Each structure stands twice: as structure tokens, then as C-alpha cells.
């Protein structure tokens, strides 16, 4: 579980600081989600692949929307690479014990971690409609949604003069049509925050909770849950909780335990085959170029978002190759998501 620190907001600078934390959290979820995604063996698990990919794509959009809000308030977004294993930015955890986020290959550990990150304030205890599958419960946590709610309430109090229209806004109709738009005022910011929270955790009206987002798709927590439980989230009027996991199955073929390396940044590749070292270098180069392009995009560089998307594709191809190159012990390792400063002196 993650628990983000929120103090009383009294200034635009306070809101800017919270937004930078939000940007770090959104971007910080990408490596663990992508590591799980890229480790799925080719030609297997099409439903799980689609679900995890959709979450990762929306996290990228959420990060860009948070950057748009920060830019509209006169701030300057910074895209930071993070270390794995390690906590997400701003996570103080329950009892000062932050969640250590790992790069898990596709496994129940990876899905449980995704559920812990995306968990709603009071996750509903939907029954699993099968006697054969026993799943560990994901602990309850104070959520990212509450963090955004505090931010939204403060932004609503700001005067129109606090907003600077058309400042370094990322607006895209090619890659993210209808999902990535300019933030020029509070109404735009509220729309963006509502989208971020709805897609991550679901929606609520008073005491009524809905696991579907504003597009009637399962929120991130429940997309991960469908794969974890191997059951499709199903509306069930006969259930006290309105929904159940199943009975319809979501077919999952789990790779053999230990096939893929967890937390490749902790591994010493210096004694591995040259092909494995080259694969890691290619992953780090693509990741570095993606971050550099994203940084350009959030600071108003024209065409930089398109570059970032291209480098994200390069990262995918490099990662898929890395997962096909055996290490000396027979395992496979995906990208460590390490940023390389001044890579070749350019981007």
C-alpha cells in the first residue's frame, strides 16, 4: 500500500509541490507495470497483456495531465527516473513504512503490487466465484485518490488570476485522442483530476462505490484484480457487494517461477554474456531518450511528445529482446529502467 503525505495547502507553491509529487508517482508506476507487461511470453495471455498495457498507457496520460495542471499554475514539471526497488515519491506508508516497489516479472506478485498501488480508500471485498482459487487479500491503504482530492479542493479556491492559459500545454490528437488536453483554468484541472482518480480507483457518489471509471471500464485496481484472480469483474445483483470476481474466467498462463529476474538493477551484469550486457545497455539508452523527450514535451518543446512515444516503442522492442537473451544461470532479465546522464552527449 502507499500513503502519500498531504499537509494543509496555503499557497500556489504548496499546490505546485503536490503536483510534482503526483507527477513522480504517475511516472514511477510505469517501470513496474511495463516490466510485468514486457515479460509476458510472446503469443500468450492476450487478455492480461491488453489490461496491463491499458493501465500503463493511462498512467502516461495521467502524468501528462498533472504536468499540464502544474504548468498552468506557473510551475515547471520535472521528469525523474527512480530506483527500483524503492518507494514511490512522497510515499510515507502506514506507520512510516513506505511500500517498496519492485520490478516483478509477470506473476501474481506483480499484480498484487499493482493492486496495492492503485487500491481505493475502502476496497470492496468482492467474492471470488470459485472454490478452487484462494487469493491473498491486499492490505487497505490511504490512497492516491485522497491525495488528488485534497489537491482538487485547494485548486477550487484559487482565483482565475492563478492560472496561466496555454503555458507549455501538452495537447495531442494523434497518439491520445480525447484523453490529453490543455488545462487553462480550474474547470479543466478538475476534469483532469476526476479522470485520473476515476481511471485509477473507480468512482464514488456519497457512500456508493463503483469500480468502473467514467468510461464504464474497470479502474486500474480492478484490471489488475481480474488478472490476479483470473476472473472477470462481473456485476451481480444477487451479491451484497453488487460485483463478483467471475464466474467467467480470464485465462492466464503464468510463466514458470524464477524464469525472469526480479529487480535487474540489483544484478551484476559484468560477468554475463556480452549479448545480455548489450541488451541492458539498449534498454537504458531507450529509457533515457524517452525521459529526455518527455522532459522536453512538458517544457513546451514542439514535437517532443511524438519523440517520447517513438522512444517508448524503442524501449518496448529493446525490452522484448532483453527478455529473450539468457543469462549465465538460464534466467532472463528485462530493463532495469536506469537513466544514463549525457547519453552520447545528446538525446
TrEMBL record:
Pfam family membership, one: Ferritin-like
Residues in Iminophenyl-pyruvate dimer synthase domain copies: 19-228
Superkingdom field: Bacteria
Organism encoding this protein: Paraburkholderia tagetis
Protein name: Ferritin-like protein
Family annotation (SUPFAM superfamilies): Ferritin-like
Source species taxonomy: Bacteria, Pseudomonadati, Pseudomonadota, Betaproteobacteria, Burkholderiales
InterPro entries attached to this UniProt entry: Ferritin-like, Ferritin-like_SF, VioB/RebD_dom
